[in-house]
Design a protein that fits this description.
alpha/beta; TIM Barrel; eight-stranded parallel sheet; 17 helices; 8 strands; binds adenine; binds zinc ion
Length: about 325
C-alpha cells in the first residue's frame, strides 16, 4: 500500500492547531511590510534558521514575537485563509482552531480585531473550500487567572461564535489548578473546555485538567503514559487526546519520531488524534504529521486516527456520523 497516498485522501478533522502558529515566514514578512513592523531577521531564510528549539519556551518566545505583525482584521482573515487552503489540500474537512487573544490585546488591539478577522476567514473557508470550522479561545497560562477572566469578559459579544476555551503557553510551573475558576465560569457559559497538559508537565497536571478544569478534550497528554492508572482512566472515559508528532519532535518532547508513542497510545485504548499544533514552525501540516508516524502504524490504525478526529470534535452528532461514513467508505474502497 502507498501509505502517503492513503493519508492524502483520508478524510480528517484537525483539532489542535494554533492559528498564530500557522503564520508562515513569507506571510510574516508580507504583513510586517504592510503594517510597518520591524522584524529582527534580514529575510525569510534567516527567520527559518532561528526555528531550532530545545524546549517549549524557546518556541514560544519566537511565536509571540512573530504574532506582532498581525495588526488588522484583514491580517487575521488572510492568516486563517492561508491555513484553510493548506488544510483543504490535506483533505481536512473540519478544523477546530485555537487563538490567543491575550497576545493581541496586550499589544493594544481590541479583542474584536482578531475575533472578527478569524471568523471572516473561517466563513470564507467554508464557502470557498468546503472546510467547516470552530474557534477556541485559549487563555495564556503564564498570565494570572484575573487576565483570563478579563479576556472571557471581552469575548462575551462573540460567545455564540466561539465553541470553547483552552489553556496554552508555558506549562511548567503553571498548573491547571490556577485556572479552575475561569474554566468553571466558561462551563456555566456553555463553552467546551480543553487544555494543554502533559506536554512538558507531569501526569498530575493532566489529572488537574480532568478534575479541576473538567476538560472535554486533552491537548497533547503525552506524559499521561507515565501513570498506568491515569491511562486507564483516560481510556475508560473515552477522552480524546490531540497529539502532535512533529511538534513533539521539534520541542524535544520525543527524541526520535520513530519512537513516538502514538502507536502505544492507540494500543492502550486511548482515543488519540494526529494534529499539526504550529505547522509553520514545526515543519508540516497535518498530513506531514500522519506521514511522520505512518511507519509505526497499521492502515487500520491510521483509519482509527481519522475516526477519532471526528468523534473527538465538537460537531453535532449528525455531522460526526456523516464524516464517519465518509471515512468508512474511503477505508473500504482501499481494501
Ligand atoms: N502555544 C502554541 N503552541 C503551543 C504548544 N505546543 N504548547 C503550549 N502552548 C502553545
Ligand atoms: Zn498546542
Amino acid at each position: 500500500m502507498d501509505k502517503d497516498a492513503f493519508i492524502a485522501g483520508l478524510p480528517k478533522a484537525e483539532l489542535h492547531m494554533h492559528i498564530e502558529g500557522s503564520l508562515e515566514p513569507e506571510l510574516m514578512f508580507a504583513l510586517a511590510e504592510r503594517n510597518g513592523v520591524a522584524l529582527p531577521y534580514a529575510n525569510v531564510e534567516a527567520l527559518r534558521a532561528a526555528y531550532s528549539f530545545s524546549r517549549l519556551q524557546d518556541f514560544l518566545d519566537i511565536y509571540y514575537q512573530g504574532a506582532a505583525v498581525l495588526r488588522a482584521e484583514a491580517d487575521f482573515r488572510d492568516l486563517a485563509l492561508a491555513y484553510f487552503k493548506r488544510a483543504a489540500a490535506d483533505n481536512v474537512r473540519h478544523a477546530e482552531i485555537f487563538f490567543d487573544p491575550q497576545t493581541h490585546t496586550a499589544r493594544g488591539l481590541p479583542f474584536a480585531v482578531a475575533a472578527e478577522g478569524l471568523l471572516a476567514g473561517m466563513a470564507e473557508a467554508e464557502r470557498e473550500l468546503g472546510v467547516t470550522s470552530k474557534l477556541i479561545l485559549c487563555f495564556l497560562r503564564h498570565l494570572p487567572e484575573a487576565d483570563a477572566f478579563e479576556t472571557l469578559a471581552q469575548a462575551e459579544p462573540w460567545l455564540d461564535r466561539i465553541a470553547g476555551v483552552g489553556l496554552d503557553s508555558s506549562e511548567l510551573g503553571h498548573p491547571p489548578a490556577a485556572f479552575a475558576r475561569v474554566f468553571a465560569r466558561a462551563g456555566e457559559l456553555g463553552l467546551k473546555r480543553v487544555a494543554h497538559a502533559g506536554e512538558e508537565g507531569p501526569p498530575a497536571y493532566v489529572e488537574e485538567a480532568l478534575d479541576l478544569l473538567h476538560i472535554d478534550r486533552l491537548d497533547h497528554g503525552n506524559r499521561s503514559l507515565e501513570d498506568d492508572r491515569l491511562v486507564e482512566r483516560l481510556a475508560r472515559s473515552g477522552m480524546t487526546l490531540t497529539v502532535c508528532p512533529l511538534s513533539n519532535l521539534k520541542l524535544c518532547v520525543v527524541d526520535d519520531v520513530a519512537r513516538h508513542p502514538i502507536a502505544r497510545m492507540l494500543r492502550l485504548g486511548l482515543r488519540a488524534t494526529v494534529n499539526s499544533d504550529d505547522p509553520a514552525y514545526f515543519g508540516g501540516y497535518v498530513n506531514a504529521n500522519y506521514r511522520a508516524v505512518a511507519p509505526l502504524l497499521t492502515r487500520e490504525e491510521m483509519v482509527a486516527l481519522a475516526r477519532n478526529s471526528f468523534t473527538g470534535s465538537f460537531l453535532a452528532p449528525d455531522a460526526v456520523a456523516r464524516h464517519l461514513a465518509e471515512v468508512e467508505a474511503y477505508a473500504t474502497a482501499w481494501v
